[in-house]
């Protein structure tokens, strides 16, 4: 916190807007739109997962369809595919962005088309840990096969690719304001839409699909996915400090990089080239070279825990998850390798330089 979150919540109470719509929702959406700086329309929802669900719903994903999804991500990227009774097709990452491999994406589309006679209905690309995916190649492949792209930017608010904000490059973009993300509304998300029609349809579906009649009349199945005006008040306050929060995440990453610069065996995940500008939601490291006996991400994590420092494993690839055991997957070992060697370090914008230095020194002691 740090902006005027409490002020906007109190305003909601004082004016009676304790409901899932109201001035805070409108203003929060507007400030997100301005921040993304495009002609896009932003609809605030109860979670990022709900946003992915409503994107797939509007792209017509249904029973029997296949949806390509990056395997190296949080399960919430793919769960909504199953809500729609469709099948995820998992695609591995490339080593430098850790995101969707264009080569494997091309192969997955071609092979699934040949096998099922139909193209996948959508592609979900993720900007993991804030790092933009290689969007020029991915947008090109999606366009060539005429498959709409859903951009999961849940971790990437503030990240840019080629000067464009993550979340604005696909048919739909997804944001999350869960407690652990770059900004929080305690829980919440948003769908970034290209057109006003998509935005209206998103609101319609998110508010129980009520038709415009004086009584309750429903012709389609709806959802209760709109963001509360109380939560949006927190979001409004957070938007006032968003640039500062992103700048701090980047500073923390730069500090870790400096501290680890001369440590053999530790690699810090970095922007892989010009055009990539991660928000560094989390600073991630991988253990490189031959790992000495007894050293693994899990042993490192446990040592840090003993010192009162919480580190976390990288996302376990979805093609390895028991819940998705039967889903087709196009893999080359990249995400499995990252999972076997990587760790997320404490990266919250509230941490001080001293905190980061203490974490880095502990990591170096253990690795050495
Ligand atoms: C957090 C997250 C989501 C889901 O967002 P919620 O708001 O928690 O539902 C989806 N995808 C990724 C990559 C995430 O990190």
Structural summary, described in words:
It contains 11 helices and 15 strands. The chain is an alpha/beta fold and 368 residues long. The strands form 3 sheets. Strands 1-9-8-5-4-2-3-14 form an 8-stranded mixed sheet, with helices on both faces. Strands 10-12-15-13 form a 4-stranded antiparallel sheet. The longest helix is centred in the middle third of the chain and has 32 residues, at 229-260. The protein starts with a helix and ends with a helix. The model has no long low-confidence stretch (mean pLDDT 97). Bound molecules: pyridoxal-5'-phosphate. Pyridoxal-5'-phosphate (PLP) binds at residues 47-49, 73-74, 76-77, 126, 152, 154-155, 176, 178, 189.
Write out the strand line-up for the largest beta sheet, numbering strands in chain order.
Answer: 1-9-8-5-4-2-3-14
Strand coverage percent: 15-25%
Helical segment count:
11
Biggest pleated-sheet summary: 8 strands, mixed
Instruction: Identify low-pLDDT runs.
Output: none
Residue share in helix: 25-40%
Q: On the 0-100 scale, what is the average pLDDT?
A: 97
Structural class: alpha/beta
Number of strands: 15
Radius of gyration: 21 Å
- Outline: globular
N- to C-terminal separation? 37 Å
Order of helices and strands: HHEHEHEHEHEEEEEHHEEEHEEHEH
Small ligands present: pyridoxal-5'-phosphate
